[in-house]
Design a protein that fits this description.
This protein is mainly beta. It has three domains: 3-85, SH3 type barrels (Roll); 92-146, SH3 type barrels (Roll); 154-269, endopeptidase domain like (from Nostoc punctiforme) (endopeptidase fold (from Nostoc punctiforme)), CATH 3.90.1720. It has helices spanning 154-159, 178-188, 197-203, 250-259, and strands at residues 24-28, 32-35, 47-50, 54-61, 64-69, 75-79, 83-85, 92-94, 98-101, 113-116, 120-121, 123-127, 130-133, 138-140, 144-146, 171-172, 175-176, 206-208, 219-222, 225-229, 234-239, 244-249, 266-269. The chain has a six-stranded antiparallel sheet with strand order 18-23-19-20-21-22.
């Protein structure tokens, strides 16, 4: 953990008041599960957990489980009904923004559900063009990759989310925020990073001069915001300005935010 983040109750167990051992380790069984700092169904969404993610459970009260996500270390509350027992473990992960689940292995069937990029599944066999999951459901095989078979270009992964709607705390193509976009893209490339933009600024990469030549893949930070340089002159980000993921000229965006009193706080090269 970065020294900057010690004592942060979002990721520091002691600061969060969790001094005892977890009572269980469980996995997310819903396509998406909301993670909130407080167990309030109408409270802010702080992050989203995906099918197959593993969490340590510390307590469960009134339908909410307090957990620590084993991937990025985020601490919060999730609906207890979205969690289930740990099984044999994931063999594959989803490689596309969204894929359908089918009860039978044909694209002509009506889908019975969906999963999102980086969801983890256990494959038990193949049925033609489909993989058969331990649940008995099917996913088109080109939408999966074996665990450990990572993408190589996180900017290319992030570009798959172009035009996805903005959602505070979101991490899927149904809704994603700026730091969720960075995290989702990097996780697909085998690099687990922290969830929020301030955490990412404190823990990812090496600093470079914000006024110097920037490169594809550089992360540009403002207070409360992060974007990915898609090239030397364009930036890719999920923004409240348009409420979607966009790629736009970096100079114009920087000037727009400066006009609101928001200047670049740092640039990090992963």
């Amino acid at each position: 953990m970065s020294e900057v983040l010690k004592g942060d109750p979002r990721i520091d167990l002691t600061a969060a008041g969790l001094t005892s051992d977890p009572i269980a380790t469980m996995v997310v069984e819903a396509p998406v599960a909301p993670l909130k700092l407080t167990p309030d169904p109408f409270g802010p969404l702080d992050s989203t957990l995906l099918y197959g993610e593993t969490v340590d459970v510390y307590d469960t009260t009134e339908g909410w489980s307090r957990v620590r996500v084993l991937g990025d270390g985020y601490i919060g509350h999730v609906p207890a009904a979205t969690l289930g027992p740990v099984g044999a473990g994931a063999t594959h992960s989803v490689t596309v923004p969204m894929t359908h689940l089918y009860a039978v292995p044909t694209i002509k069937a009506e889908p019975v559900g969906m999963l999102f990029l980086n969801s983890r599944v256990q494959v038990e066999g193949e049925d033609g063009a489909f993989m058969r999951l331990s649940s008995g459901l099917h996913i088109e095989k080109t939408h999966l990759a074996a665990t450990g078979a990572h993408a190589k270009d996180f900017v290319k992964v992030a570009r798959m989310f172009l035009h996805a709607p903005y959602l505070w705390g979101g991490g899927t193509v149904q809704g994603i925020d700026c730091s969720g976009l960075v995290q989702a893209a990097m996780v697909r490339c085998g690099r687990q990073v922290l969830r929020d933009s301030d955490m990412q600024q404190a823990s990812i990469g090496s600093p470079v001069d914000p006024d110097g030549p920037l490169k594809r893949g550089d992360l540009v930070f403002w207070r409360g915001h992060v974007g990915i340089m898609a090239g030397a002159k364009t930036i890719l980000h999920a923004t409240e300005y348009t409420l979607r993921v966009v790629e736009e000229p970096f100079a114009a965006m920087r000037a727009r935010l400066a006009g609101l009193g928001l200047n670049v706080t740092s640039v990090k090269r992963p």
